């Protein structure tokens, strides 16, 4: 910018980079408050600085941004040692002529990052620079693309779904008893039973609700897969069961359970 009633590009750039003293910043801030032209120019300079800061971190520099920035710097630096002339400057002594501060290399990524962080309020107070918007849009596009990819994987019919758990050497033994007390009818289906040594057997017990002694309800041995069943053992009719239990007994079976109970299940109360 060559019009002396406005802030030079050089000063705007130094201002954006926070490279001016507080005394130098005051008149510029006053002018910016009044002058839309200079605010727009500051936004452009700030936008380019921000883009370069971002490009130093991870983004590809938008086409032309670097050239524009360097061009601005070159144009501004030509009339070196120029006095800041500001129409809104308060009456009184003219600002001191000051030397152009040594230029901070634009490649100083760390400094630019600091600058970019400080530009937020300036950018919001002025019209957003088109290139800055482009950079924002690019970042948002990257995020939405990634989100879309995740969603596609999660919802794909072709995706294989595998549950991973801590390794368990033996699957958990389970058994399901189906009991009809009024008929004295009982069926038990057991799975994943541990193998049982020769001369031993599993024995099923009905544990009566009235507190009387457990009633033996059948012997069984698991097959190679750990499965076994007890179907309609000889048991009394009409015994209300509180629970069912399984113990390991000698092969001939027992009239009373030998602890420990290796499997147990309570009969659900009415209403459960
Ligand atoms: Zn101006």
Folded structure, characterized:
- This protein folds into two domains: 147 residues, no CATH class; 93 residues, Sandwich (Immunoglobulin-like).
- Helix content is 36%, strand content 18%.
- It has a four-stranded antiparallel beta sheet, with no helix packed on it. It has a three-stranded antiparallel beta sheet with strand order 1-2-5, with no helix packed on it.
- The protein is rod-shaped and about 110 Å long.
- About 12% of the residues have low confidence.
- The site of zinc ion has 6 residues, from α3.
Structural key phrases:
272 residues, alpha+beta, 18% strand, 3-stranded antiparallel β-sheet, binds zinc ion
Strand content: 15-25%
How far apart are the first and last residues' alpha carbons, in Å? 84 Å
What is the 3D shape? rod-shaped
Q: Could you spell the SSE succession in H and E letters? A: HHHHHHHEEEEEEE
List low-confidence stretches.
76-107
Structural class: alpha+beta
Topology, number of strands: 7
Sheet of most strands: 4 strands, antiparallel
Could you give a quick summary of the protein structure above?
By secondary structure, the protein is α+β, with helices and mostly antiparallel strands. It contains seven helices and seven strands; from the N terminus they run αααααααβββββββ.
């Amino acid at each position: 910018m060559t019009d002396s009633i406005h802030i030079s590009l050089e000063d705007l750039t130094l201002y954006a980079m926070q490279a001016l003293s507080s005394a130098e910043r005051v008149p510029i801030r006053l002018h910016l408050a009044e002058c839309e032209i200079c605010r727009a120019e500051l936004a452009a300079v700030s936008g380019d600085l921000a883009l370069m800061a971002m490009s130093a971190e991870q983004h590809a520099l938008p086409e032309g941004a670097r050239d524009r920035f360097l061009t601005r710097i070159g144009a501004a630096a030509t009339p070196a040692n120029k006095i800041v002339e500001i129409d809104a400057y308060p009456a009184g002594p003219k600002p001191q002529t000051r030397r152009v501060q040594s230029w901070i290399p634009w490649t100083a990524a760390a400094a630019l990052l600091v600058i970019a962080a400080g530009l937020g309020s300036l950018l919001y107070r002025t019209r957003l620079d088109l290139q800055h918007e482009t950079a924002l849009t690019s970042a948002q596009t990257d995020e939405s693309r990634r989100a879309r990819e995740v969603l596609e994987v999660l919802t794909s019919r072709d995706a294989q779904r595998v549950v991973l758990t801590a390794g368990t050497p033996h699957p958990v033994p389970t058994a399901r008893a189906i009991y009809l007390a009024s008929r004295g009818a009982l069926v038990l289906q057991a799975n994943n039973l541990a193998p049982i040594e020769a001369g031993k057997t599993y024995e099923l017990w009905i544990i009566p609700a009235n507190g009387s002694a457990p009633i033996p309800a059948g012997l069984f041995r698991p097959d190679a897969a750990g499965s076994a069943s007890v179907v309609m053992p000889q048991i009394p009719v009409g015994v209300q069961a509180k629970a069912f239990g399984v113990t390991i007994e000698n092969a001939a079976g027992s009239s009373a359970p030998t602890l420990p109970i290796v499997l147990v299940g309570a009969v659900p109360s009415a209403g459960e």
